[in-house]
Amino acid sequence: MKTKLKHILHAGLLSAAIAVPATAALKEGDLAPDFSARASLDGKPFDYSLKAALKQGPVVVYFYPSAYTGGCNIQAHTFAVNHERFTAAGATILGVSLDSIDRLNAFSADPAYCAGKIAVASDADGAIAKAFDLQVREAGEGKKDTRGADIRHGLAERTTFIVTPNGRIAASLTGLKPADNVEQSLKAVQQLGLSPRAQIDSANGPAR
């Protein structure tokens, strides 16, 4: 019983440690800042360009505090499970955090989280998050991830932007629980009406 209680308390403290207050993020209709970054997909690093990705359709750019932390693990897993539904709606997904590319190589390939389906980019200095008007703060001394490793990077607030091919933000989602963030992101993409399949999936809701 004491061991179970200890785990619950630890999870609560970890969740509180990575919570970042919401600020005035870019809004619907704003022009999304263009950016390039080192990213990873299924453990393989590559150079990501938002401009290039938008040539293929809308992009879901989701900022999260840190790989291998409670809420971010749930969010990555939920995006991965629903990856095909985003694809059917014509959209691609990119996660952005201040994690190093080495941490993201592991996270992007981890079958419990990104599962080789979601690309995640390293915004090591927080410049991309700040360009989207997001708050970035330090993790603080002694903060560890769910693997027990030290978190040595800053934390961006959890906010998702739906960026249309013309570079405009169609939706800005913040202040939501991780799984709800994915659900609302999927609905926002489907409402763009880029494919008949999207209209069918919209009635079913996202997989959990």
Write the layout of secondary structure elements.
Blueprint: H1 2-18, E1 36-41, E2 44-49, H2 50-54, E3 59-63, H3 70-81, H4 83-88, E4 92-97, H5 101-109, E5 119-122, H6 127-131, E6 136-137, E7 155-156, E8 159-163, E9 169-174, H7 178-190, H8 196-204
Overview of the structural elements:
α3 packs parallel to α7. The protein has one domain (2-204): Glutaredoxin, CATH 3.40.30. A hairpin with a 2-residue loop joins β1 and β2. Helix content is 37%, strand content 20%. It is of the alpha+beta class and 208 residues long. It has helices at 2-18, 50-54, 70-81, 83-88, 101-109, 127-131, 178-190, 196-204, and strands at 36-41, 44-49, 59-63, 92-97, 119-122, 136-137, 155-156, 159-163, 169-174. Mean pLDDT is 86; it is low at 1-23 and 195-205. 42% of the residues are buried. A seven-stranded mixed sheet has the order 2-1-5-4-3-8-9. It has a two-stranded antiparallel sheet with strand order 6-7. It is built from eight helices and nine strands.
